[in-house]
Structures are given as structure tokens and as C-alpha cells.
């Protein structure tokens, strides 16, 4: 069982994508190794469902953030280690010796450089492994707790690098005159005998790369660490929640519980509704990954998934209009909600692809129906403020919030700060007039 976030939701919130501008993945992708980036990508594609697992990962990020440690290797350095240990090797020492002797002879006769490449790779790998050993010992010296987060992994690395078979690492001296026999002995040991445990060391250093990079970003951005609660408590509380990818984003409080599990959001165009909803959705997703969140404080009940409907495209190939695409999206979400899953649902401007009367009736009916599922959390935005007035009288679990517009004469300004109530802003024609569109057409 895994956390549900379908393609539409991931695209709405711009979660994934190394090459997508302003994606959340790119914000956190400050790692230095290829293996670290791969691990980070896997984490982004697999949010967690267990509150204990979420809090453990979060605690690791907090630990490394408190230490403010720098990852000691560049991508180039660590790639040398991975390439060397990942290359093929003979199954026994004699075969290794014979193979290297042949390569050395070829190097002398026809200037074949493969033997020198192996020797250089061996020397670089030994140097990096010694650096790994020093780094782990420094981490141990700085730990304040008896068993800090990530202690078991650090102990695993320490035990592998302290293996008696690797005792020679500390006294090894880099020299161009290393004999063929010693080169073969150490090459066979590292690339065959100790390959599996050294692969574990590399994997743990990939984890260190991710934890140190993400912790550093959290420190730089002033992010906090959300606390996960068991699924049944149906709670979400955030203080000063904002969009993590927007510099100096305006922050807002968000508070849900069993008796108040839906926000009905109104406000003018450009007042910030979509940005607020995306900020909420992104932080919900990050929190389920155990990652730092853009909030001063956050605690939440673990959910089973997240659905959004923000930028629903039409599908001309299938013959779908924009309105029908919206309807199909709402149907898909309704199917998931009706299965009694604990979900987070975000709808931005329901049914904007149809006429005002149908949009009013549909928004009112669908919102009222969804509000009966109190195991889920909903944010639904609309321009149809009349629907909010009816819902306020009929439903007791809906928070009516709006994002205001302040008029400076005929010029609108936006606070991006949530206010209780329903928006009464109707400034569309004023904005059109400010842009001089009607004058152009005279």
C-alpha cells in the first residue's frame, strides 16, 4: 500500500521533475552524488504512510540540521569510487594478478593505459575510503545523544571500514612504485572480497548526501519539521504555512479537525487562492515524505493520499471539452472518497467550464456531498460566492475563508492573508477598464 498522488496532482503541484522549472524536487535537489540524487527522486515518488517512519526520517533531518555538517565529497570524487568498485573483477587473487600482469605488459608494449587506469582507480578509492572513515569518526565525536538518529547506519559504516581485512587502509601510502603484487592483492580485496560491504558503505553515504543537503536547505529557508500523528485522529494544524518555492511568500494558518474538515475559499482573481491551495498541497506532500515544510509549525494525521484539481486540461483527442474533463476529474475523486479513504482534496474553481447557473448548482451539490465525508480534508475555491452563503446555513463543518482585495482608488492590491467569511469583491470590470481594453476597441 502506498500514498496516493496521481499524475494530475503531481503536475498541479509541480512536485516532480529534475528538468521542470520551479519544481519542488529541484528546490530540494542540492545533493552532490548521482546516487544521492537517485535516492532523493525515490523519496519524492514514495511518500510514507506510517507516522513512526515519517517522524524517524524527520528526526534525521533535524539532527543533521542541528549539526550543520557539509558533505565531504564532490560528485566527481564519489563517482570515481562507484565506477571503480562497480567495474568487473576476477574471482580470485591469482586470476587478478595474471590479468593485471597482462594489462601492464600491454601498457609497456603498445601504450595500453588500462592497467594505469585500474591502478589510479585503486589509489583514488583507498584515499576516499580513508576520508569516509575520518568523516564517520568526526560525526561520532560531535554526537550528543547516546543513540542519535541514523546511529545504526553510521555504526554499520564504522564496522565495515574497521574490518580487519581493511586495516592496511590507514597505513597505505600512495606511490607510483606500488608493486604489481600489491596492486593485485588490494584490487582483488576491494573489488571482489569486500565489494558487497563497500557497496553498503556507498549506499549509506548516498543517504548522508540527501540528509545533509536537505537539512542545509531547511536551515537556509527557515523550514520546520512537521510532526506526524496516527491516521485516525483526523487533524491538520499549521502555523505560518507558505509556498516553499516562492521567495518571501506570505504565510497563513491552516487548521482542520473532525468537526471542521472543509475550507470553502473565495476571493478575486489574483488574490492568491491558487497559490495558497498549492502551498497547502505541497506541504502536505512534503510532510508525508518526512521532509522539512514551509511552516513555522505543523502537525498532521497521516492521510492515505492527495488529489487536486487545479489545472485540468481538455482532451481534444478524446473529444473532451474543458467542462467534461472537469466532471471526469471530480468523478475520479468522488470514487476515491466514497471508498472511505482518508484523503486530502483540493478543488480550485469547480466547474468553471460551464454557465453560471449550472456552475452554481453543481458547486453547491458537490461541495455539500463531499462535506459528509469527515475522514477527509477539503479545500474548495470558487467565484460563486452565493454557494458559500447557502452552505454556511446547511453545513456545520465548513470554514468560510476568503482572500481580500484592497482598492487604492481604482488600483487593486492584495494582502494574500486569509480572512474569515465570504468575499464580496467584484472588481473584474474595474481591472478591464484599467487595462484600457474598451478604449482600444472604440
From TrEMBL:
SUPFAM superfamilies: DNA repair protein MutS, domain III, P-loop containing nucleoside triphosphate hydrolases. Keywords: ATP-binding, DNA-binding, Nucleotide-binding. Pfam families: MutS_III, MutS_V. The keyword ATP-binding applies. One of its GO terms (cellular component) is cytosol. The keyword DNA-binding applies. Residues 260-442 form the DNA mismatch repair proteins mutS family domain. One of its GO terms (biological process) is mismatch repair. InterPro entries: DNA_mismatch_repair_MutS_C, DNA_mismatch_repair_MutS_core, DNA_mismatch_repair_MutS_sf, MutS, P-loop_NTPase. It comes from the Bacteria. GO terms for molecular function: ATP binding; ATP-dependent DNA damage sensor activity; mismatched DNA binding. PANTHER family: DNA MISMATCH REPAIR PROTEIN, DNA MISMATCH REPAIR PROTEIN MUTS FAMILY MEMBER. This is MutS domain III. It comes from Mucilaginibacter mallensis.
Amino acid at each position: 500500500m502506498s500514498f496516493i498522488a496521481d499524475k494530475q496532482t503531481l503536475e498541479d503541484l509541480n512536485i516532480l521533475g529534475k528538468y521542470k522549472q520551479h519544481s519542488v524536487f529541484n528546490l530540494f535537489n542540492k545533493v552532490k552524488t548521482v546516487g544521492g540524487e537517485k535516492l532523493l527522486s525515490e523519496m519524492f515518488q514514495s511518500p510514507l504512510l506510517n507516522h513512526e517512519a515519517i517522524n524517524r526520517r524527520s528526526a534525521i533531518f533535524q539532527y543533521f540540521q542541528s549539526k550543520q555538517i557539509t558533505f565531504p565529497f564532490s560528485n566527481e570524487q564519489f563517482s570515481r569510487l562507484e565506477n571503480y568498485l562497480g567495474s568487473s573483477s576476477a574471482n580470485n587473487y591469482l586470476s587478478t594478478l595474471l590479468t593485471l600482469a597482462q594489462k601492464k605488459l600491454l601498457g609497456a608494449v603498445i601504450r595500453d593505459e588500462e592497467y594505469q587506469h585500474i591502478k589510479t582507480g585503486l589509489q583514488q578509492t583507498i584515499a576516499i575510503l580513508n576520508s569516509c572513515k575520518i568523516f564517520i569518526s568526526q560525526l561520532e565525536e560531535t554526537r550528543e545523544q547516546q543513540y542519535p538518529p541514523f546511529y545504526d547506519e553510521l555504526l554499520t559504516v564504522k564496522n565495515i571500514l574497521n574490518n580487519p581485512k581493511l586495516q592496511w587502509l590507514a597505513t597505505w601510502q600512495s606511490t607510483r612504485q606500488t608493486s604489481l603484487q600489491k596492486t593485485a592483492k588490494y584490487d582483488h580485496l576491494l573489488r571482489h572480497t569486500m565489494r558487497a560491504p563497500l557497496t553498503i558503505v556507498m549506499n549509506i553515504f548516498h543517504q548522508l548526501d540527501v540528509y545533509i543537503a536537505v537539512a542545509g536547505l531547511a536551515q537556509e529557508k527557515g523550514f520546520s519539521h512537521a510532526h506526524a500523528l496516527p491516521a485516525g485522529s483526523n487533524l491538520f494544524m499549521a502555523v505560518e504555512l507558505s509556498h516553499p518555492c516562492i521567495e518571501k511568500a506570505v504565510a497563513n494558518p491552516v487548521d482542520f479537525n473532525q468537526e471542521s474538515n472543509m475550507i470553502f475559499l473565495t476571493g478575486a482573481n489574483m488574490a492568491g487562492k491558487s497559490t495558497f491551495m498549492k502551498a497547502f498541497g505541497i506541504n502536505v506532500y512534503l510532510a508525508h515524505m518526512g521532509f522539512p515544510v514551509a511552516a513555522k509549525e505543523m502537525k498532521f494525521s497521516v492521510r492515505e493520499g492527495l488529489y487536486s484539481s487545479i489545472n485540468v486540461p481538455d482532451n481534444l483527442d478524446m473529444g473532451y471539452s474543458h467542462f467534461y474533463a472537469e466532471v471526469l476529474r471530480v468523478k475520479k475523486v468522488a470514487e476515491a472518497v466514497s471508498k472511505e479513504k482518508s484523503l486530502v482534496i483540493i478543488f480550485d474553481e469547480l466547474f468553471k467550464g460551464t454557465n453560471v447557473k449550472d456552475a452554481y448548482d453543481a458547486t453547491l451539490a458537490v461541495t455539500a456531498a463531499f462535506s459528509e465525508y469527515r475522514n477527509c480534508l477539503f479545500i474548495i475555491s470558487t467565484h460563486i460566492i452565493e454557494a458559500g452563503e447557502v452552505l454556511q446555513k446547511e453545513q456545520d463543518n465548513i470554514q468560510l475563508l476568503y482572500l481580500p482585495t484592497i482598492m487604492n482608488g481604482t488600483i487593486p492590491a492584495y494582502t494574500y492573508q486569509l480572512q474569515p467569511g465570504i468575499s464580496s469583491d467584484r472588481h473584474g470590470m474595474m481591472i478591464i477598464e484599467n487595462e484600457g481594453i474598451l478604449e482600444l476597441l472604440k
